[in-house]
Structures are given as structure tokens and as C-alpha cells.
Amino acid sequence: MNPDDTKAPVSDYDEFVNWEKRLANEGPFFRELFEREGIGRVVDVGAGSARHAIMFATWGLEVIAVDPDESMLAAARENAARSAVDIERAGGSLRIVCGGFGELHRLGVKPADAITCTGNALPHVAGRDGLTEALADFAGVLVPGGVLVLHLLNHARLLASRSRVVPPKIVDTARGSTKVFVRVIDYPEGDEYLDFDFVTLERDSGGAWSVSSRRSLHTALPLELLESELACAGFGRIEAYGGHDRHPVGEADESVVIVARRW
């Protein structure tokens, strides 16, 4: 499944994502990595409704979930409250904080063993200067040898193919309605940005349709650029995969997973 957009309305976001399936797919990747690297403290940046952060906390880890969107933070707090007993039983902890890219130092975040940035959150940085700032901030918070995990759409594939639409997804909601999620992509000149139109069509139980949409400008972050910027920010041992099963990135892969260590 493609990474999802962390700026989408919360109702759409949590209905678009099959969280049980997604975490079952991604969980083993993170757990093996965290256990192998001896991770105890994690900062999840662009945490959205905190599903990953909660999972990490139920493994007994100390977790900080950071997101700039107040509606997402409200959903994150609700989700965390429902998992509070499991987190406490595991000996973990979860703190939810309002903040954006490049702000970890301002927030006073203590040194971390790992930083995660999943769900296609990273392209919301403010251009390539914003990427440089964000990666420097990550490096400044990570302990030497700390791990950074990024997960985002494969922008190299999009820029090469000029695909205009991500395959629609149809979801039957708990309210009895049906939602169709469509993402339409435009390519401004220069290949530095991608324009995404997020369109949601909903059919209610009576058969009537409604449409909502919003546009989001994303910074184009092809793998080659990310690897170069990571190296400049002080990261090494960079690994890139086409999925959480760790297969090599291919031209057809819809997303990329990057693991890097701070020198």
C-alpha cells in the first residue's frame, strides 16, 4: 500500500488506512531493526494519529510522537488513551507533542536512539532547503550511531512516468457509507515539487454522493536526492528498500524505505 498523506482530514486518514493490516506488515521490520540496534528511545516525526508511535510504546519503548496538526494530535491522544493499559503493561511510555520539521531542538527533545518519519510525511518539508533543515535537526537529536527511518512515495518513479493518478481506493465505512479516495498528481516545471489533489467521494446509505477535495504541495524527494542530502547531514550506512520486506528498490516500487545511521 502506498504511504498516506499525514495532512488529510483525520476521518479520511484513519478510514483510508487499514491500520491492522498495515501495522502487521510493517511491525516486524521495525521490531527487528529496533532490537538489533538496541533502540530504547524513539521520536516519531509527522506521527499523524500516532498508530506507529503507539505500537512502538507497546514494545516497552520510550516514544515521543510529534505532529503539527491539532486535529491529528487530538486523534493521537484518543488512540493513545485506548492503548494506555497495554503501554503501561509493557513498561513503555508515549508523549504527544505539537511540532513540525526542523523543530525538535526548539521543543527540547532529548537525545534519541531512533527517529522515524513514515506515511509520506517527509515531502511536506518546505522545499529542498526545508529538507536540509529537517535532516540537520534529525541528526542533532539522534545519538551517535542512532537510526533514522524514512518511508515515502517513490518520487523517482512518479517523476519518470509522470503518472497523473494513484489507483483509487474504495472503503465501506462503519457509518454505512462508501468512500472513494482518489489522488490526482500535477507536475510543476522544474521537478522540485509535486501537486497532489486529494479527492474524496462519499455515497451515503441513501445513495447520494458528496465530494470533498484539497490540494497539497509536496517537495519532490527522489531517492538519489535523499541519499545525497543524508550524507551531507552526517548520515552513513544508508540502506534503501522498495518495501518493508527489504527487497531492493525497483523502478516499479510505489514507495521507498530508507534506513540511515548518524555518524
| Strand adjacency order, main sheet | 3-2-1-4-5-11-10
- The CATH superfamily name of the largest domain is Vaccinia Virus protein VP39
- Would you tell me which CATH topology of the largest domain applies? Rossmann fold
User: Stretches where pLDDT falls below 50 for ≥5 residues?
Assistant: 1-8
- Give the C-level CATH assignment of the largest domain: Alpha Beta
Q: Number of folding domains?
A: 2
Distance between the termini: 32 Å
Shape: globular
Summarize the biggest pleated sheet.
Answer: 7 strands, mixed
SS content category: alpha/beta
Oligomer: single chain
Radius of gyration: 18 Å
Order of helices and strands, N to C? Answer: HHEHEHHEEHEHEEEEHEE
The helix content, as a percent range, equals: 25-40%
Total count of strands: 11
Percent of sequence in beta strands:
25-35%
Q: Under the CATH scheme, which architecture of the largest domain would be assigned? A: 3-Layer(aba) Sandwich
Q: Provide mean pLDDT, rounded.
A: 94
How many helical stretches? 8
Structural key phrases:
263 residues, alpha/beta, Rossmann fold, N-terminal domain of TfIIb, 2 domains, 7-stranded mixed sheet, 4-stranded antiparallel sheet, 34% strand, globular
What's the helix and strand layout?
Blueprint: H1 10-16, H2 19-37, E1 41-45, H3 51-57, E2 62-67, H4 70-82, H5 84-90, E3 93-98, E4 112-117, H6 127-141, E5 142-153, H7 155-161, E6 165-172, E7 178-186, E8 193-203, E9 209-219, H8 223-232, E10 235-241, E11 255-262
Parallel strand pairs: 1-2, 1-4, 2-3, 4-5
Antiparallel strand pairs: 5-11, 6-7, 7-8, 8-9, 10-11
Helix pairs in contact: 2-3
